[in-house]
Design goal:
Layout: H1 2-29
């Protein structure tokens, strides 16, 4: 259970990073 939760947290962190990168790319496109 704990390792499963750790894996989930890792996935969430990766998703956040992807969203952040996509947002930055989008922001530079619209400058």
């Amino acid at each position: 259970l704990t390792s499963e939760r750790d894996g989930l947290a890792e996935e969430v962190e990766q998703l956040k990073r992807k969203l952040d990168e996509a947002y930055k790319e989008n922001a530079t496109l619209h400058e």
